[in-house]
Amino acid sequence: MTRSEWAQVAARIRAAYPGSSFDARAEAVYLDVLEDIDVRAVDRAVEDLLREGSPDPPAAGVIRSRALGGEPAPVAAAPVEVRDHGARKGVGWLGVVAAVALVAAAIALVLILVDNDGDGETITSPGITITRDGPTTVTTPTETVTEPAETVTQPEVELPPDTGTP
C-alpha cells in the first residue's frame, strides 16, 4: 500500500471519528503497521470495522488482523494519545513528597534551635541570634537591636472580703 492510498483510507477513519486522537502521528504509525498489505484488503477491513459502531477508531493491529483474514483482537483499542507534559511528567507526587519533607525539616530545625529552659527563649540561626528574656534582642554580625519587653497590665479588681462560707 502506498502513502497516497493509505491517505484515502485514513481520511475515512478521521471522518468517522472526528473528535478522536487519530491524527497525523497516528496515521504514520498505522501506515508502518499496514503498508505491506494490499490497500483493498485494508479498505475492506476498515469498512467492516466502521460498521461495528465502535466509539473509538480501530487499532492498527485490529485492522491488520481483519485485512489478513483473521479475527480481530478481543478489544479494539484506540490509538494511544500522546501528550507532552515536558518537565512536569511524574512530578505530581514528587512535589508533594518534597513539600512534606521541607516542612518536616523546617519544624525539626525550629525545635532544635529553640531553647525553652525557662530562662527565656533563644533562637539561633547561622549569623543571627534572637533572645527573648524580657526585652527581645536580635544580634547579627553587623548589629544588635533590642526591643523593650511588652508589659500587659490589667486593672485591679477588688474582691469582696472572704466570709468563710461558700
What's the short version?
This protein has helices at 3-16, 24-34, 39-51, 60-67, 91-113, and strands at residues 114-116, 121-125, 128-132, 136-139, 144-147. Helices cover 42% and strands 13% of the residues.
Secondary-structure element pattern, one letter each: HHHHHEEEEE
Shape type:
elongated
What structural category do the secondary elements indicate?
alpha+beta
Q: Could you say how many structural domains there are in total?
A: 2
Strand order, sheet with most strands = 1-2-3-4-5
Kindly state the mean pLDDT as a whole number?
A: 74
Number of strands: 5
Q: How far apart, in Å, are the first and last alpha carbons?
A: 106 Å
Q: Taking Cα atoms only, what radius of gyration do you get, to the nearest Å?
A: 38 Å
**Percentage of residues in DSSP E strands:** 5-15%
Per DSSP, the total helix count is 5
Question: What oligomeric arrangement do these chains adopt?
Answer: single chain
Give the fraction of residues assigned to helices: 40-55%
The low-pLDDT segments are none
Largest sheet: 5 strands, antiparallel
Properties at a glance:
single chain, 166 residues, alpha+beta, 5-stranded antiparallel beta sheet, elongated
